[in-house]
Structures are given as C-alpha cells and as structure tokens.
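The records we work with from here on pair a chain with its fold. Taken together, the tokens spell out the fold as the letters spell out the chain. To see the layout at work, look at the sequence and tokens printed below.
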Amino acid sequence: MSARVGVITFPGTLDDIDAARAARLAGAEAVNLWHADADLKGVDAVIVPGGFSYGDYLRCGAIARFAPVMGEVVKAAEGGMPVLGICNGFQVLCESGLLPGALTRNAGLHFVCRDIWLRVDNNRTAWSSRYEAGAEILVPLKSGEGRYVAPDAVLDELEGEGRVVFRYAENPNGSQRDIAGISSANGRVVGLMPHPEHATEALTGPSDDGLGIFFSALDAVLTA
C-alpha cells in the first residue's frame, strides 16, 4: 500500500508538478488537488507548493488562505495529517494560522535565486525524520519575500520547543535567527522557504538532498 500525497494547485502555482514528481520519486501516489474544491480526495498528506498564488496580490498567500481547499487542509492538519508548505506554500500556512510568524521582503529588497546550504536542526518532525540532526543539505532558494519574521516571544517559543526545523548556514534574506523552516507544535506541519522538490535528482538539481523530506513524510504516514 502506497501513501497518497495531495499537491494543491492555485492560480499562479508554479511548482506543483515538481512537488508531485518528488512525492512519486519517494514512492508515493501523487494526487492533484484543485484550490476551488473543498475535497482532499482521501489523501494521507498534503503539500502546498511554491509559486505566486493569486499573483501574490495583497500579501503572499493572503488570498490563497481563503481557498475552499485550505479550509479542508486546516481541519486535516488539526487532526494530525502531515502538511508541508514550500516557499509560497510556507507563506500560505502562516497566513492560515497553521504556522506562526510571517514571510516579508528580503533584506536588500532583491529576489534571491541560488543554491544554499541548510542545517537540519530538528529531525523529529513528520518531514525531517530521514535526516541526521545537524546534517547540512543543499537545495535551491528562489524568493523575493522569504525573510522569516516573528515577535521575539514567538521566536523564543520556537527555539525553546525545538520547532526550528531548518536553518540557513549563510542567511541570504535576513530571516530572523537564520530560520529557513519551522514546524507546528506537534511536528506534523512544516513550512520552509527553500525548494527541496528541486533537489531530488543529481541530474537536474544541485543534489538529491531534498528527497529526505518526502521519504520522511511517507515514514510518518505508513508507520502511524
């Protein structure tokens, strides 16, 4: 029995095909989810992929959070379903209240597009268990509004509870405390700004380091 991983498509989504491919490479069945349908089609996990949902009008992810499918994602996440938000998906999860904080314009106001090193600070989440704690992985980053910010009290809570999952080895966008990715309190919801789905095959990416994220989710689903 293979896990079924849903991948949402919003108007303006760019990386849904890549996320679905990454899920398949890890051994899952990828299931397309449409933003206007309040139906998760019985999937075991959900990926909210990168892109420019609804053209990034207002704030990035601010419109997507009201899509019918996101209401179902929020309910499923509250019930323990693994949910991953990548780049714009991370923004959507923050706007939806599933993760704290916000993603703002990069320091220097420039779009950053390059391969970067991340350190795995927490390997106990549904999306990071395949990594060794402290491991460094090489994945692409491509965002103009990727600077993670939150009040000091929230940052202290994230640090204290071990909910910083990924941290930049060299901070490219001014994110507070070098944060590249965080998790929910139960470790089932994870958001990160870099793109692991673009680092799944050595032929097309800087590495295949991103595959561990998708294998981790399958472990979480199949051993639940």
